[in-house]
Amino acid sequence: MDLEPAFIPTSPASPRRTRTRATLAGAVLCAAAQLATAQTPATSATSAHDGQHDFDFVIGRWNVHLRKLAHPLTGSSEWIEYEGTSVMTRIWDDRANMEEFKVTSLDKRLHIDAQTLRLYDPQAHQWNIYLAHAATGKLPMPPTVGSFKDGRGEFYDAEDYDGRTILVRYVWTQPTTRTARMEQSFSPDWGRTWEVNWICDLSPQA
Fold first, then answer.
1. Cis before residue 72, ω within 30 degrees of 0?
2. DSSP labels for 22-82?
C-alpha cells in the first residue's frame, strides 16, 4: 500500500510510473531528504531515535478504504474509491514487516493487489520500503526511505512518471488509537509543492 503503503501501487490503468535509477534521481532524493530535515535541528548518531518499532501500530488485519486520484499531476479532481483488506505481519524479530494489500473499486472494475516489504536499517535509523505490484510482476528500485518523528512517518523516493522525474512522498499517521492512515503525494517541482493522490484509511477488522 506504500502501500508500502510505502505505499504505493498504481492501478493497471496507470503503467507510466517507474522508479528511476539515474544519477539525477539520486540528487532529487537527496533534495527530498533535505526538505524532510530542514525544519528540525540535526540529531547526533548517538541520540538518534531507534525506530525499529515505529510501524508496530499497523501490525494486524485491517479493513481498507482507499481514495485514489485518477489522473495525478494533470489538474484532475476525479477520485476513485476502493474497499478491501490489508494484512501486516512482523518478520525477522521485528526488524521488518510485510503487508498484503487487496482492494477493489466500488464499481468492481478496478483491482489493486500489492505486497510491501519494510526493512529497518538500525545504522541509518531509517525504514526502506519496497513495493511489489502484482500487475507488473516487478520489484521497483530504489526503495522509498524515511523515518518517524513525533508520530508522523515521512518516506521519499524519486521516480520517472509520464516522462519526467518527480518526488514521491508517503506519510503515515495514526488519527486515533485504533486507526491508521497513509497518504501518497507527488511533487513535480523538487518538493516545493505536493499533490496528494492516495488516501488510505485503515480500521481494524472485527
1. no
2. SHHHHHHHHHHHHHHHTTS----GGG----TTTTGGG-EEEEEEEEEESSTTTT---EEEE
Q: What share of the chain is helix, strand, coil (3-state, %, to 5)?
A: 10, 50, 40
Element (DSSP H or E) covering residue 106: none
Q: Model-level pTM?
A: 0.82
Domains annotated for the chain, with CATH where assigned, are 17-38+55-204 (2.40.128.20)
The answer to whether 177 and 15 have CB atoms below 8 angstroms apart is no
* Span 159-205, pLDDT tens digits: 999 999 999 999 999 999 999 999 999 999 999 999 999 999 999 99
Cα torsion 25, 29, 30, 32: sign: positive
